[in-house]
């Protein structure tokens, strides 16, 4: 297994650690940061989430730079993204910090595109991430990070940055899902 794929697997392995800090009340209290009151465990979860999300860029950069792009990486990388985002949004819904309707839209798209990729793989085709899929992932990561940090960056200005990012993430999620299906409709028509 090459280094980019090992980095991707490290992202998957960070997910349970992230979830523990997000969901378990350790009783560590909270602290004020730029006007926002953040539970220490949520701050730690946010840092783990951000590090895990950054490995998405790192593994892709390393794979392209050193010509280590593999079909396994093309499959594992989007899967790791989906697992990380799913864990974050499901955890945030459970904490009543993320709207359930947005989580359903986002997760439905993720399952649909994963299904499309599985059908394509049955005929030996690999559907790599599109530019819209990458922007979708970035918007979801920014939305989740803003929520995990209790909107700390814009709390002083009273700008609901986290709410704006939720809507941007939902819009990009829907658009990128439609884009995948339009560009790869042959996968479904040829599989009948």
From TrEMBL:
InterPro entries: CDP-alcohol_PTase-I, CDP-OH_P_trans, CDP-OH_PTrfase_TM_dom, CDP_ALCOHOL_P_TRANSF_CS, Phosphatidylglycerol_P_synth. GO terms for molecular function: CDP-diacylglycerol-glycerol-3-phosphate 3-phosphatidyltransferase activity. It is a multi-pass membrane protein. Keywords: Cell membrane, Lipid biosynthesis, Lipid metabolism, Membrane, Phospholipid biosynthesis, Phospholipid metabolism, Transferase, Transmembrane, Transmembrane helix. GO terms for biological process: phosphatidylglycerol biosynthetic process. Pfam families: CDP-OH_P_transf (PF01066). Its main location: membrane. It catalyses: a CDP-1,2-diacyl-sn-glycerol + sn-glycerol 3-phosphate = a 1,2-diacyl-sn-glycero-3-phospho-(1'-sn-glycero-3'-phosphate) + CMP + H(+). It is an enzyme of class 2 (transferase). Its EC number is 2.7.8.5. It is found in: Cell membrane. Pathway: Phospholipid metabolism; phosphatidylglycerol biosynthesis; phosphatidylglycerol from CDP-diacylglycerol: step 1/2; Lipid metabolism. The chain crosses the membrane at residues 12-34, 40-62, 83-107, 164-182. GO terms for cellular component: plasma membrane. This protein catalyzes the committed step to the synthesis of the acidic phospholipids. PANTHER family: CDP-DIACYLGLYCEROL--GLYCEROL-3-PHOSPHATE 3-PHOSPHATIDYLTRANSFERASE 1, CHLOROPLASTIC, CDP-DIACYLGLYCEROL--GLYCEROL-3-PHOSPHATE 3-PHOSPHATIDYLTRANSFERASE-RELATED. Belongs to the CDP-alcohol phosphatidyltransferase class-I family. This is CDP-diacylglycerol--glycerol-3-phosphate 3-phosphatidyltransferase.
